[in-house]
């Protein structure tokens, strides 16, 4: 099994009415429930837009915490899902279900293997 990250940038969401968003919520929750029932769900969540981000930076040798995003950008992560699936085809299937439920595009990336001695993962 391999873990995949399925995510979207907030800017991909577009402008929609509150009613439109309320209608999408049950659809997205249904996909999460389906992932759980299939045993592929690891994590899913949307990120708050209005709370300020902060960074932790130790590149100078002194740990520094700074309010605000590390890089000023018009795009920022809006939400993410992690699935543990047998192959890329399954990751594509789940990303498609999420994209259809949410109503905006999703990007998919495979996590590096997290084996002993490979330096990947945390």
TrEMBL record:
Record-linked InterPro entries: Dimeric_a/b-barrel (IPR011008), YCII (IPR005545)
Signal sequence segment: none
Domain YCII-related: 30-97
Entry's family note: Belongs to the YciI family.
Name under which the protein is recorded: YCII-related domain-containing protein
Origin species: Catellatospora citrea
Taxonomic lineage: Bacteria, Bacillati, Actinomycetota, Actinomycetes, Micromonosporales
């Amino acid at each position: 099994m391999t873990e995949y990250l399925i995510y979207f940038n907030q800017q991909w969401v577009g402008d929609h009415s509150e009613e439109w968003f309320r209608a999408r919520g049950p659809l997205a929750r249904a996909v999460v429930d389906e992932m759980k029932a299939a045993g592929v769900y690891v994590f899913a969540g949307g990120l708050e837009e209005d709370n300020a981000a902060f960074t932790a930076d130790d590149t100078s040798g002194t740990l520094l915490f700074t309010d605000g995003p590390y890089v000023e950008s018009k795009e920022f992560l809006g939400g993410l899902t992690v699935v543990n699936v047998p192959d890329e085809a399954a990751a594509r299937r789940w990303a498609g279900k999420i994209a259809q439920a949410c109503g905006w595009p999703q990007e998919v990336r495979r996590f590096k293997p997290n084996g002993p001695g490979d330096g990947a993962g945390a």
